[in-house]
């Protein structure tokens, strides 16, 4: 399961050339934000490691001359920095993150699932085919805004349609704060078009459905074909879930790339700020409604409904905003309920243990 350290960090990450030399930690994305959280003593007794891969059976961690697998933990995800405690690896301290992407885990138990930490740019990938859905792009964009990550929409497979412009226009309409890049992921285009975000020491992530070309883009940036890719189904353009784990890869210039498995479902949770940022235009209108608690449904003096009537605001966009807000409120509430239930249960267990200890 362990991997050769030298393979992860390509020769380019050390070689003198067009870019500065990176030491082994910098080549893993270490920077002052993390260094500030630790003392010199910490550094020698508990060396920093970054989680570069999440398996079902463990967390693959790399550091300066360290290559190890830690037991899985729900509170740690790919991209995290840990201070590796050699005597108690399971309780290694997790450093504060610059960013965290999470969602409501699929299935019926409403747990949250950590997707990735310490990401600088999220490439939200979709294709010029049936995968393209504005509502889905908005979901990912809200997720990125919530996590304070720069989102960039990447529209792939422009070579497969006679006129990709309609897709590009629809992607641009998602938000004027988000750059849109449209390309054929298989050639040199990703290397030229995505480089502004792929700087040494930065970590970028590819997110999106299965089959949209996330691994193809990652291979293009890595200048290799090391990540497996597979053709999509012809009838409905759906991918075959080729990538099965979240894994960081190092670009020759020292930028780190996170390839992720296609997500079947992306349910937002605790993302109200991200949704509000994405739909800032609706927030601005809502501030002008006559009633403070206006629900923008039938109320008189509703600036949101007026904007729809006047053709300034798209009614579908308003509908999607409502849906995301409702979903987020529901998931966040059930998560809060779960957290307090877990807390109460923990308290009860500790109480019982205390009674037992006293009796002993
Ligand atoms: N024509 C064309 N094919 C592309 C493009 N991007 C990706 N493909 C093809 O689409 C298929 C799926 O690409 P992948 O890179 O495996 O997709 P993925 O997003 O990593 O999919 P999962 O790992 O399943 O999540 C492969 O056959 C790619 O060669 C593109 O821009 N143009
Ligand atoms: Mg893939
Ligand atoms: Zn209103």
From TrEMBL:
The keyword RNA-binding applies. This is Small ribosomal subunit biogenesis GTPase RsgA. Residues 117-264 form the EngC GTPase domain. GO terms for biological process: ribosomal small subunit biogenesis. GO terms for molecular function: GTP binding; GTPase activity; metal ion binding; rRNA binding. It is an enzyme of class 3 (hydrolase). GTP binds at residues 156-159, 208-216. Monomer. Associates with 30S ribosomal subunit, binds 16S rRNA. The gene is rsgA. Belongs to the TRAFAC class YlqF/YawG GTPase family. RsgA subfamily. Zn(2+) binds at residues 289, 294, 296, 302. HAMAP family: GTPase_RsgA. The keyword Glycoprotein does not apply. Binds 1 zinc ion per subunit. GO terms for cellular component: cytoplasm.
């Amino acid at each position: 399961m362990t991997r050769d350290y030298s393979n992860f960090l390509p020769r380019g990450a050390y070689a003198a050339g067009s870019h500065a030399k990176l030491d082994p930690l910098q080549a893993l994305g270490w920077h002052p934000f993390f260094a500030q959280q630790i003392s010199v003593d910490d550094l020698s007794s508990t060396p920093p490691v970054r989680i570069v891969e999440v398996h079902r059976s463990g967390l693959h961690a790399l550091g300066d001359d360290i290559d190890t697998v830690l037991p899985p933990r729900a509170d740690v995800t790919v991209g995290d920095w840990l201070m590796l405690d050699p005597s108690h690896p399971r309780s290694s301290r997790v450093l504060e993150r610059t960013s965290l992407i999470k969602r409501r885990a699929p299935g019926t138990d409403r747990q949250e699932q950590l997707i990735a930490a310490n990401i600088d740019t999220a490439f939200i990938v979709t294709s010029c085919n049936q995968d393209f859905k504005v509502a889905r792009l908005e979901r990912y964009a809200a997720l990125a805004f919530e996590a304070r990550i720069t989102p960039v929409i990447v529209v792939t497979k422009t070579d497969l349609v006679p006129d990709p412009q309609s897709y590009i226009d629809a992607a641009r309409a998602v938000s004027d704060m988000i750059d849109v890049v449209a390309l054929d992921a298989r050639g040199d285009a990703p290397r030229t078009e995505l480089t502004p975000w792929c700087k040494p020491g930065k970590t970028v992530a590819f997110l999106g459905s299965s089959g949209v070309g996330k691994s193809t883009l990652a291979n293009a940036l890595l200048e290799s074909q090391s990540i497996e890719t597979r053709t999509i189904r012809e009838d409905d353009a759906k991918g075959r879930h080729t990538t099965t784990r979240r894994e960081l890869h190092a670009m020759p210039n020292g930028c780190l790339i996170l390839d992720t498995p296609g997500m079947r479902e992306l349910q937002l949770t605790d993302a109200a700020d991200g949704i509000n940022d994405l739909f800032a235009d609706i927030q601005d209108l809502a501030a002008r409604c006559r009633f403070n608690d206006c629900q923008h449904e039938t109320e008189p003096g509703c600036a949101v409904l007026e904007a729809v009537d006047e053709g300034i605001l798209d009614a579908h966009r308003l509908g999607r905003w409502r849906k995301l807000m409702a979903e987020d409120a529901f998931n966040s509430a059930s998560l809060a309920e779960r957290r307090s239930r877990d807390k109460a249960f923990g308290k009860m267990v500790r109480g019982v243990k205390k009674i037992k200890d006293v009796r002993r």
